[in-house]
Amino acid sequence: MNFQDSAVAVVGGGVTGLTAAELLARRGIAVTLMEKSPFLGGHAAQLACKAIDACVQCGACVVEEKLRQVGRVPGITVWSGAHIDAVQGTTPLTIGYHRHTFGVDRTKCDGCGQCLEHCPAAGALVRGRGADLMPVVAVRRELCHFYADESCRRCQEACPQGAIDLAEVEQRGRLTADAVLVATGFTPFDPTPKPYGYGRFKNVVTLLDLEHRLRRQTLLTRPSDDAPPQRMAYIQCVGSRDTQLGHNWCSQICCASALRQARLIRARQPQIDITLFYIDLQTVGQPFQSGPDADADGLHRVRNIPADIIEKAGGELAVIYFDPRTRCSSEDRFDMVVLSVGMTPAADNHRLADHFGLVLAESGFLSRAPAANSPARGIFCAGAVQGPMRIAESVRDASRAAGEIISYLSHNGDLP
Amino acid sequence: MKSNVLIYGDGACAHAIAGRLSHRQVSVCLAMTGGAGGQDLPAPLVGDRPQVIHHTRLAQVRGTAGDFRVRLAAAGAMRELSAAALVISQSAQQQPTFSAYGLVPGPRVVRLSEADQEGRLAPNAGDTVLLLNSWETESHPAVVDGLLRLSEGLIRNKGVRLFYLTGNLKVAATGLEARCEALKAAGAVFVKLTGQQPSIVRLDDGRIRVDCTDELLNLPLTIIADWVVVDETVVPNGESDHLAPLLGLERDAGGFLQSGNVHRLPHHTNRQGIFVAGLSRGIILEADIETEAGSTARAVLDFLNTPLQADAAAAQINQGRCARCLTCYRLCPYGAVSISDFEEGPRVSVAAAACQGCGICVAACPAVAIELTGVNGREIAAQLAKPLPVKTQEPFIAAFCCARSAEAAHQLARTMGWGLPTALRVIAVPCGGSVAVAHLMAALEQGAEGVLVGTCHDGNCHSESGNRRARQRIAQAQQLLTAAGIDRRRLCQVSLAANQGRRFAEALTAFQSELRSLKA
Amino acid sequence: MSENESTIETGQLTLRRFEKWSHHQNVCLTCGLCSSACPVAGVDDFDPRKIVRMVALGMEQPLVEARWPWICTMCGKCAEVCPMQIEIPEIMRRIRSLRQRSSVPGILHKGLAMALRTGNNLGLPKEDFIFILEDVAEEVAAEPGFETFQVPIDQPRARVLTTIHNKLVNTHTDDLKHWWKIFHAAGESWTVAADNWEGTSWGYFTGDDEAMRVMAGRIVENMRRLQIDTLMWPE
User: Fold this and answer.
1) Which CATH number do you get for residue B435?
2) Across the interface, do C9 and B222 touch by the CB < 8 Å criterion?
3) Residue-number span of the structural domain to which B296 is assigned
4) Given B189, B218, B221, which is nearest C56 (Cβ)?
5) Same domain flag for B131 and B55
6) How many angstroms separate the Cα of B72 from the Cα of each of A253, A290, B17, B268, B437?
7) How do beta strands B450-456 and B491-496 pair?
8) pLDDT digits (tens, 9 = 90+) for C28-43
9) Contacts of residue C48 in chain A, CB cutoff 8 Å?
10) pTM recorded for the entire structure
11) How many CB atoms lie within 10 A of CB A188?
């Protein structure tokens, strides 16, 4: 079957989109991979390897492999900073989009980082890897002073390659595709509204924040003063299993992530004391099914969720909870708390659903009901945009969707 | 390549894969151990109708990817088939857990998978039904899914009093949390046990009495159940013990026919052309079977539509030097080495279609009879001989890095500018296992002050054993060094994942410091 | 049969006893957030989860007889943190309402009964109430800057009607002065009612909905009588 004349747009450059793009391109299909952020890889690419003596099957290196594959396979065009404006027609579909290059010309940027040294606005410049995995810088408009009031051009002036043009204009255009795969993933729950001090207390972080730290550090330190923590706490189910928020689901990945992180930290820094506050521990999949004994990992487990965190003098965090063992209200001191935040629907799911004529479930994720989003007009969905999903399941779902798209294209647009 | 596929297995997943492949004009043979099913597979618009064989068992598999020769045992006779690809997709076994609760099966004590059977579980309105769902061991969402389905039927239709005892309630799958909430709202009582050992006894009238502590009230709780449903554990099909060696397949820690190695995801095995799906590869929820089938069908179609690897890209055995020791045959993780009979005697050869180019055989061959582009001695020597770009006083380190892990980590460190020693020569190899003792020695001979081998973490090596072999080779080489009076610390191994750029930089820097201290 | 009286035998439970209560009491996750948030958790073995559990199990008798439901301060923190939106304070009230009034602990019902009869928990006659207020008002007026202060009683069409907590005209009369001075300095137009001025709501607290309705009704009647739209009801 010859797919030389077929074109597919994959919306979302996380593990699902990357996997599907490579599987489609392998068959000769021209793929445009559209990602709204500056970098590919999504959330899964931000994870650290959590192997101790052996791999713990977290899947982080799978994403790394997909990134390299996408860079190598011919036929995939990667657009970062790409947003969908309108969708019309049915095989071929016409997708209106706009793109911006985050103020940086990637053909000129070599990731030297000089701009970063001159930038006065913390976080306005970020450095990652481009589609070819070479380092590249991107400007975040929401933090950049130039985009606020044109008051600063220091990065542009400092760049030795002349790669920065803050006044760059968005490109608008129309893309034609025979099929589209919506693989836009999820948003991690923002725990700021919870009474845990996230955003106010420096040493209260989320699981993802901790992954970022573990990528950069072999020996964990705490954000406030870069000293190693002595007593850490994990609080599970933050933003999940919560009908008050409208999130009556288990996010499926947080218990495994917390356990992997905690075990890794204790393996490297055994003097750190770690307590896990939980409701029901979800130990699904490798390596937990037949993994180490619960008690052997040295973590303290408390089967209750704390209600408050108060910062004390010196930055100590007082965690207030009801101890089911002593049946008393307790206040324990920690110097670092990790909130195991869940997966929530991405904020732009509604907009995407409108554009593509997709149905949302009550949860806000794309509906998985059999008749709801069955591919019509050549529009397919895959991955965590449909609900919480592990990396292994996302890869499988991408494979499933790629198969459906190939089948659809083989039948000249008719659904088999 | 022919486009015929043998699917081996009973159950919904095998059936769904057969239907999908057949629809895509693949010639399908569905071989089942049982006697039922497969009749309703749709005939494709073009091509052969799927063939269904019942009451059969896989007896032998020869050949290689693209050209498997299979023998199926059926009714005392053997059937021969050829297939380009094999799909193993059997149903799993549900094992009852009666003994874990001190119970035996009986009129009032039923296991989950039998609870639906006519007459097995027949409560009257007002009867107490107790579900036991593991507290000393961890259950699984797939089992909870089944227990919830049973509970939903009971509480809706029968008006029973339902109690659900569990340790950690496994809700980590789509919809389970919402279903538990609905059951509770309908009056089901969940009792959570944390480190408790409830007492479970059978009363004279056949009812079951459970004594435990309600952890919310901190009061003793006694449940006298008219009916008890015990949960099950899901274990691989009983034939897996037989199939794994037959097919040369790896198994995971639970015995399923797919290693837990993330490189195998979603449906690959260590053998090219042999796919594993559904409950043959792990505990899969019923709701995910269609996705599983679709994903497998795509993988198989992709395989059928991709030209097989050319001979030149695979490992080549020089027949003149080969001593027929069969070391390569035993070591190959991919089952790519075969022995065949010729007039001159047995001949060992590498099937190009199956070879994954790991180079383990090359490094292990005592006769140095195997060649593979990229890991041959002279290619390695040439790389080592290249002058370093910068003249430096730093100790020269040669690093053999697995392309999938350490080399990727090296690239990450380099592109992000995380401090690497300048006197560093990185040689990419397909697998840590392809690094021979000779390579390590060659590096030292070429002036390296230290040699590092960067491999994948245990359980993450694509060749499963490559990193272990690398450690063995280093140990062997270190013995040689010690005998020659050279410090053994000049050789080391580090295990890494592809995303551990920082760790790579740290390991190299630490190695460099150590070498400097040795110099002094 | 159980040797221990407090053993729960599920066979004896009337699981559906509180079926009609729509406070989501059955869907408790056992997360413990309510217990963690509760300011009196652990006091006399109190734990809001216990109440939720006992309601879910239909344990009416122990609930009515237990001390636990009366330890709750009705602060509402539990409801705020509960991920399953269980209306724990509402449950507390309803359990309290199940007790015979004569068994309501302490002076709670006695004070309420007095208020139903006389308009305030103390049974303080109207003249005495007015006398106390005016007496304190004189003390305020004696302070520099407050010479024109007068306590407005039954002032029609004032902007704000306020209730009075009975302790302010009993043991803590000085506490009247602070907010009176603030209102005066702000130029606020306010008043208290001479009858049915009681601000405590022990009908709410003891789960006596009928009494709560009567007490609230009297306040509303005052508002109508005095033609005032805004009520300040500190408790």
Assistant:
1) 3.40.50
2) yes
3) 5-92+236-305
4) B189
5) no
6) 41, 33, 20, 22, 44
7) parallel
8) 999 999 999 999 998 8
9) none
10) 0.93
11) 17
